[in-house]
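User: quick one, sequence for these C-alpha cells?
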C-alpha cells in the first residue's frame, strides 16, 4: 500500500499544518520572488525541522517545477491547486501521476470556487480524490457549509461532504487533510469567529471518531490570518490565502504554530 504523507494513523495529534495557496493572484516572476521570501521565513525558524509544524505552499501549475527547486531541502512541502481524475485524453487537465513526478505531496480538491464556478459536484471530487490517492498524493479536501448555521448543523454538512469524497470508504480518509472553509467566510474581511470554528471542528471530530478518524488533520481556511490560530480549539492549523501573500504574515503564523506545539 502506498504510504501517504498525511496518514492519520501515524501522525501525532499535536502536529500543526500551516499552508498557503497563491490562487492566481501572482504572475510567474512574482510567484518566484514570493516563494524565495517564504523559504527565507522557513529557514530562519530552525525549530520547524522537528516536524511539529508542517508548512506547505500551493502555487499555480506553471510555477510547480521551479517551486520544487526553490523549496528543496527545506521543511516546506509542495502542493498543487487542482488535479484531473486520470491520465489519458483529458485536454487541459493535469494528471496526479505527473504532479507526483514533480514532487507534489498534496493537492487541493473540492474548493468552493471549483464547486461553484466549474460545477464540480461530489462525484467529480470523489474521482479526483481516488486518483490523487492512487498517485501517492494526499488530497487536501476543501469542505464547508454555504451559509452560516448552528455548529452541529455545519459539522453534519461537512461530514457528508467528506463521506461523499471517499464514497463511504472511510479508510481512504486517513490519508487526507481536511480544509474546513465555510463558504460564507471565503474572501471576507474577517474569518469566522474562533468560537464558531472550534465548535464546528469539535463536532466534526466526534462524527469522524465513529470511523476511528477523530485525529484527522483538520485545518481552517476562509480569510485566515495571523492572530487566529491561538484562539482555536480542535483545529490542526491554518490554510492561508491572500494574507500570506506577504511572506512575513506566513512567518507570523508559523511562530504561532511553533509556540502552540511547544506547550
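Assistant:
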Amino acid at each position: 500500500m502506498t504510504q501517504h504523507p498525511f496518514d492519520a494513523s501515524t501522525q501525532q495529534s499535536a502536529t500543526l499544518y500551516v499552508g498557503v495557496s497563491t490562487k492566481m493572484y501572482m504572475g510567474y516572476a512574482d510567484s518566484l520572488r514570493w516563494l524565495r521570501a517564504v523559504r527565507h521565513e522557513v529557514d530562519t525558524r530552525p525549530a520547524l525541522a522537528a516536524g511539529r509544524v508542517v508548512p506547505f505552499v500551493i502555487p499555480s501549475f506553471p510555477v510547480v517545477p521551479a517551486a520544487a527547486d526553490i523549496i528543496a531541502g527545506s521543511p516546506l512541502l509542495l502542493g498543487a491547486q487542482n488535479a484531473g481524475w486520470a491520465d489519458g485524453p483529458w485536454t487541459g487537465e493535469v494528471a496526479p501521476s505527473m504532479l507526483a513526478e514533480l514532487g507534489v505531496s498534496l493537492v487541493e480538491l473540492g474548493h468552493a470556487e471549483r464547486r461553484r464556478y466549474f460545477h464540480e459536484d461530489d462525484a467529480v471530487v470523489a474521482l479526483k480524490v481516488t486518483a490523487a490517492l492512487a498517485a501517492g498524493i494526499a488530497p487536501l479536501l476543501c469542505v464547508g457549509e454555504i451559509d452560516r448555521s448552528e455548529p452541529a448543523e455545519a459539522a453534519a454538512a461537512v461530514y457528508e461532504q467528506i463521506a461523499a469524497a471517499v464514497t463511504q470508504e472511510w479508510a481512504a480518509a486517513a490519508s487526507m487533510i481536511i480544509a474546513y472553509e465555510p463558504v460564507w467566510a471565503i474572501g471576507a474581511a474577517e474569518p469566522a469567529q474562533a468560537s464558531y470554528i472550534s465548535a464546528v471542528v469539535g463536532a466534526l471530530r466526534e462524527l469522524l471518531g465513529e470511523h476511528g478518524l477523530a485525529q484527522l488533520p483538520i485545518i481552517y481556511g476562509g480569510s485566515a490570518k495571523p492572530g487566529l490560530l491561538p484562539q482555536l480549539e480542535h483545529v490542526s492549523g491554518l490554510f492561508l490565502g491572500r494574507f500570506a501573500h506577504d511572506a512575513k504574515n506566513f512567518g507570523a503564523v508559523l511562530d504561532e504554530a511553533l509556540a502552540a506545539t511547544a506547550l
